[in-house]
Every structure is written in structure tokens, then in C-alpha cells.
Design goal:
- The structure is a single chain.
- This protein is α/β, with parallel strands linked by helices.
- It is 46% helix and 12% strand.
- It is built from 19 helices and 15 strands.
- The strands form 5 sheets. It has a 4-stranded parallel sheet with strand order 6-3-2-13.
Length: 546
């Protein structure tokens, strides 16, 4: 018997991208051969590293779940203690960010955002967008047309929408997080293995490839909000993507500007390291409050009753762990010359109900007054009517200054223990449990119909707020919680509430409530805890259904 020596021969393939989704009118303007060649390069160069970083997330979540609380890293202490480095900071059009409006990228919402009077528009392909194939590609078309001044929209009722503002917000586009796939685009690597593309690289790549040069010509630039980061290594991956992409299309290094959302617990311990790894490309950090609460629950869901949070409405920005995280963010940003951008209050006005509108204005004004007083340079709103409310609070602090980077906050001292001090001292109520079931089921139903940002009970709900609702239910069950009236929160109890909610909602032909209830059962009542509810929902219902 002969023994083979030397390297084992392997078959190599040319990396390639294949479109698996249907092609509708104008999709060829986005899915051009040149753009697909760029996506192929992005996946070839960075796809494996993306999978490595996702594996790191799983390991870290396992460690926290098994009693190893996160700490500030010893191996990066030299970065935090080096006072000399600063970040790139604002690019053209990002110098004043006092009010930013967020929203999805369909034509109507794009036009409304550009006419809103905000300083910045977060063009959201992430949590405010249900990632149907239609939304993914037609959102890119909306942005392409808007950037070229060509966007028009006529509603089914015949109402015509067009951009009329003389000064439009600077666009900062938010691609999907590293964890989300794009099943309608398939990547084949050198070994011949075919897999779903990365939602992050697809959203970023198509937007950047088609619009970078035009944005620069418009006096702005290719700017991005980066979501769901959990480590400085993930930030380094994005930085390498940015550097390669700038070289690929021939724009100067540092043209891209990113704003990173600090919306996961691990990232809160690495704010300076994230800024450092992205220092040539970063403008600031944002306090992504809703995903941050979800991250706390997700990481500590199995660590005992002392980590159980009360009703979602009781987890405000002034509870200990939220206060610590936001104050640390402002201090960290201003130390390094980065903008600190506040989060979004969920309260929204209702033009048909003056009392609801007045309450929303009061709540939002108080939220923005606190943020401006704490040193934030700007904030988010989800509705155009809230822009004057938020702007008034920041104008009162900023005056004619574009920001308050000079406010250093030396008095702020935040320890690792402060960041996980989740004691609130409030009960779980029956109304709170019902509210979580109701919001989650109604939101998931809308998401399955292609809507990513939904007004429910006069609050703006997106994927992040739905994640809080379902993860709280999972944790309450697994930590044997009871409501303040003594009712045990069990699977049977929640099943009864699901039936109650399905009886309360208005049913229509073609609605997705039964599918939504099934997804909710899987992500809230199962023994296992899916890392994101959008993963099973996407795989089961959005891949073959659009």
C-alpha cells in the first residue's frame, strides 16, 4: 500500500455571487455586474472573519451566562491610558447633529425624512426595516434616487410626494448587523462552498458602490451607522472593510465616516477600543437604548432573580445601569473628539388625539433635556413633529455652537459593577406581561408583512423593542417570576395571553397573526433562547415569501 506524501490537492473555485431573489423593474440598476463584483470581493476578503467574530459572540455570551461578568479589558489598557490619540470626527455635513430623524427607506418615508428639517437622517436598512427582498433592493433604489435629486412618489390614493426642502438632512445609512444573512444573494467561496450573503456587506456594499462618488460631489460623504457591535475586533473588521472599499472605488482613505451604536453590554466595556480601531473613520457613538436593554436581558437571562427586570415601562434612562452607560459614553466620546448621540424616546404624537400628542411632547422634551444637560451633542426622534421639541432642548444648551465636544465630564467615574447594576425595585405586573405579549405579537405580524417601524399604543416599536418584550417573557418564565398580584408567569399563562391577544386584534384576510404567534412561541416560550427573533422569522417567512 502506497502512502501519499506532500500536500493534499484541493479544488479551487473563483469566488462568485449569485442572485436568488426575483428581479423586479429597476432592480438591474442596483444589481449591476460591477456592483456584484464588488460584493464578491467584500465576501471573499471579509466573510470568514465575520463568521469568526460571530463565534466570538457566542463564546462571550456563554461565559457571561456561566457567571463571568464582563470587565474592562487588561490587554487594551494601554489604549485607554494613552491620552494622545483622537478620532477623525465629523465629516462634511456632520458638524451639527443636534436632531436626527430615523426611519425606513421606502420612497414615502425617504421623502418625508428629507423634508423634515432634521440635521441628519438615519436611513435605516436595519431595525426599522423588515428585510424582505423588496425592501432591501427598493430601499437602495430610494436612496440612489434621493441622492441624485430624482426621487418622486405617488401614493395609491394619488397623493404626490417630492423633496421640497432647500436644505436636506445629511444621510447616514444603517446596514444590517453582522448576524443577519441575506438569503436572496448567495456567495460561493474558493472551496466551492455556497452560503447566504452577509446582510451587512450587501447593504453597505450596494449603497457605497453606487453612491460614494455622488455623495462626495454633493458636499457630503458616504456615512454609516454601525449596529449591534460587541467588540473592538468587530470594529476592526468594519474598519478594514472601509479601507478596502475606499481603495476599490478610488476615494481618499478616511472618506467614510461611521457612527457606532453602543447597544450591547459587551460593547459598553470597549467604547474606547472601538473608537481606537475605527479612529480614521469614526465620527461618534450613539446610545442605542432599546437594544442595550435587550442585550442586558439576553446576557443575564439565566443568572438568577436578581438580574430580572420589571415591566418594560419601568426600565427608564434614569435607572442605575442605563445612567452609568450613557454617562460613560459621553465622557468617552468627548475625551477622543467623537460626537455622543442620544437615543430615541419611544413616545410619538397622534395628530388625531391632542392628549396623546401633548403627553408625547412632554415625555420627549424631558428626555432630550436630560440628554442635552448630560453633554450629548445630538439626539434621535422617530416622528417629524418631534423635531422642534428635541431641537428646543438642544438649542437651549448649545446655542449657536454646533456641538459640546469641549464638555469633558471629568467627574464621571463608572465601574464595571455600575454597568450591571440592574436593581430597580419595581414589580412585574399583569399589565406589563400582557403588554409585552401584545406588543411582540402585533409587531412581528407587521414585520412579516414588510413593516419594520410600527406605531403601537402610541409608541414607536421596532425590532429592538420587540426583542425586549419577548426576552422579558422568556426570562420571567425561566426565573419563576410572579406578577404583583401573585400570578405565576408560566408557559400556560403566556399561552392564555397569546389567545387573548389574538382575540383582541382586528383580523383581516391575509393578516399574519397566526404566523406571528408561532414565532413568538418559538422565541419566548421555547427552552432555547434564539439570539435574535428576526433570525427564525426571516428564515421561515421572508426568504421564500417575497
Amino acid at each position: 500500500m502506497r502512502t501519499r506524501t506532500g500536500p493534499i490537492p484541493t479544488q479551487t473555485h473563483e469566488p462568485s455571487i449569485e442572485i436568488a431573489g426575483r428581479l423586479a423593474p429597476r432592480y438591474d440598476e442596483i444589481l449591476t455586474p460591477e456592483a456584484l463584483a464588488f460584493l464578491t470581493e467584500l465576501h471573499h476578503r471579509f466573510g470568514a472573519r465575520r463568521h469568526d467574530r460571530l463565534a466570538d459572540r457566542m463564546r462571550r455570551r456563554f461565559e457571561i451566562g456561566n457567571g463571568h461578568d464582563p470587565q474592562f479589558r487588561d490587554d487594551t489598557r494601554h489604549i485607554r491610558e494613552d491620552a494622545d490619540w483622537k478620532v477623525a470626527g465629523a465629516g462634511p455635513g456632520l458638524e451639527d447633529r443636534r436632531v436626527e430623524i430615523t426611519g425606513p427607506t421606502d420612497p414615502k418615508m425617504t421623502i418625508n425624512a428629507l423634508n423634515s428639517g432634521a440635521k441628519v437622517w438615519l436611513a435605516d436598512q436595519e431595525d426599522a426595516t423588515s428585510p424582505t427582498w423588496q425592501n432591501v433592493i427598493e430601499g437602495q433604489l430610494s436612496l440612489r434616487d434621493a441622492i441624485r435629486g430624482e426621487l418622486l412618489f405617488t401614493s395609491p390614493e394619488g397623493k404626490r410626494y417630492e423633496v421640497t426642502a432647500t436644505e436636506t438632512p445629511t444621510i447616514v445609512m444603517r446596514p444590517r448587523g453582522w448576524h443577519l444573512p441575506e438569503q436572496h444573494i448567495r456567495f460561493t467561496d474558493r472551496t466551492g462552498r455556497t452560503m447566504a450573503a452577509s446582510g451587512s456587506l450587501v447593504d453597505f456594499g450596494l449603497y457605497f458602490f453606487h453612491n460614494a462618488q455622488q455623495l462626495i460631489a454633493n458636499g457630503r460623504g458616504p456615512y454609516f451607522y454601525i449596529a449591534k457591535l460587541e467588540s473592538s475586533e468587530e470594529a476592526k473588521l468594519w474598519d478594514d472593510v472601509f479601507t478596502f472599499s475606499e481603495q476599490y472605488v478610488g476615494v481618499p482613505h478616511g472618506t467614510i465616516r461611521a457612527t457606532v451604536l453602543i447597544e450591547t453590554l459587551p460593547a459598553a466595556f470597549e467604547m474606547e477600543e472601538i473608537l481606537f480601531e475605527l479612529r480614521d473613520h469614526i465620527a461618534g457613538l450613539n446610545a442605542g437604548r432599546w437594544d442595550y436593554i435587550f442585550s442586558i436581558i439576553k446576557n443575564y437571562r439565566g443568572r438568577g432573580a436578581r438580574f430580572v427586570l420589571p415591566d418594560r415601562s419601568e426600565v427608564t434612562m434614569t435607572v442605575p445601569f442605563m445612567r452609568a452607560y450613557t454617562e460613560l459614553l459621553v465622557k468617552t466620546c468627548h475625551k477622543r473628539g467623537a460626537f455622543a448621540i442620544g437615543g430615541m424616546s419611544a413616545f410619538i404624537p397622534n395628530r388625531r388625539d391632542p392628549e396623546v400628542t401633548e403627553r408625547a411632547f412632554e415625555k420627549v422634551a424631558a428626555d432630550k433635556k436630560r440628554e442635552a444637560g448630560d453633554g450629548f451633542d445630538g439626539t434621535w426622534v422617530a416622528h417629524p413633529d418631534l423635531i422642534p421639541v428635541a431641537r428646543a432642548e438642544f438649542d437651549a444648551v448649545l446655542g449657536e455652537r454646533p456641538n459640546q465636544l469641549d464638555r469633558q465630564r471629568p467627574e464621571v467615574e463608572v465601574s464595571a459593577a455600575d454597568l450591571i447594576d440592574v436593581h430597580i425595585g419595581r414589580p412585574v405586573t399583569a399589565a406589563g406581561v400582557h403588554g409585552n405579549v401584545s406588543v411582540a405579537v402585533r409587531y412581528i405580524e407587521a414585520w412579516l408583512r414588510g413593516l419594520g417601524a410600527v406605531a403601537i399604543d402610541n409608541l414607536m416599536e421596532d425590532a429592538a423593542t420587540a426583542e425586549i418584550s419577548r426576552s422579558q417573557v422568556w426570562q420571567w418564565i425561566h426565573q419563576d417570576q410572579t406578577t404583583d398580584d401573585g400570578t405565576a408567569i408560566t408557559r400556560d399563562y403566556i399561552e392564555g395571553l397569546i389567545d387573548q391577544v389574538l382575540g383582541e386584534v382586528e383580523r383581516r384576510e391575509g393578516d399574519r397573526f397566526d404566523d406571528a404567534a408561532d414565532i413568538f412561541r418559538e422565541v419566548a416560550l421555547g427552552q432555547d433562547f434564539p439570539a435574535f427573533l428576526t433570525l427564525p422569522a426571516y428564515t421561515k417567512f421572508l426568504v421564500d415569501g417575497d
